[in-house]
């Protein structure tokens, strides 16, 4: 079901329209509800187009305006959370996936990245007006940082993850097997 056809959306619109009429008649305050409604619809459609919602199929590795748990899939290299909440579980990734790279993107959302501490993984984190939390530190606002699992050793094969957080939050957890 589409957000624009949901009962919550139309219920909020009717309530706001009623409040607008009451405010206009009792207090003389005019709120242009129709213009605001059209503006919000255009913003929603624009974000949907930017997120690829009209032309692209929704994959198991993307969350847009929703909440989901995403598990490791060998065929996927990108995991995206846009305007939603998601858990990206890479714990069951086997150690043979070294010398591979993954992208994890959180935009206006909240995500959790679960890693296996016994697999050598190097995570490069970049944050733009967001927060990234790793087991030993927090990256706020603007910045870049790195995180490695305990199995990571320099000059040996590893899995590379590029994590980007824009106006969101990413919590990276390294669990032991």
Explain the overall architecture.
Strands 1, 2, 3, 4, 5, 6, 7, 8, 9 and 10 form a 10-stranded mixed β-sheet that branches. The longest helix is centred in the first third of the chain and has 21 residues, at 7-27. The protein has helices at 7-27, 33-50; strands at residues 62-64, 67-71, 78-82, 85-89, 101-107, 110-116, 121-134, 137-148, 159-166, 169-175. It starts with 6 loop residues before the first helix and ends with a strand. It is 22% helix and 41% strand. Strand 7 (121-134) and strand 8 form a beta hairpin. By secondary structure, it is of the alpha/beta class. The radius of gyration is 21 Å and the shape is elongated. The chain has 2 domains: 3-50; 62-175, no CATH class. The mean pLDDT is 84.
Characteristic key phrases:
177 residues, alpha/beta, 2 domains, 10-stranded mixed β-sheet, 2 helices, elongated
Task: Report the uncertain regions.
Answer: none
Largest sheet: 10 strands, mixed
Task: Tell me the series of helices and strands, N- to C-terminal.
Answer: HHEEEEEEEEEE
Count of strand segments: 10
Tally of alpha and pi helices? 2
Give the topology:
Blueprint: H1 7-27, H2 33-50, E1 62-64, E2 67-71, E3 78-82, E4 85-89, E5 101-107, E6 110-116, E7 121-134, E8 137-148, E9 159-166, E10 169-175
Task: Summarize the model shown.
This protein has two helices and ten strands, in the order ααββββββββββ.
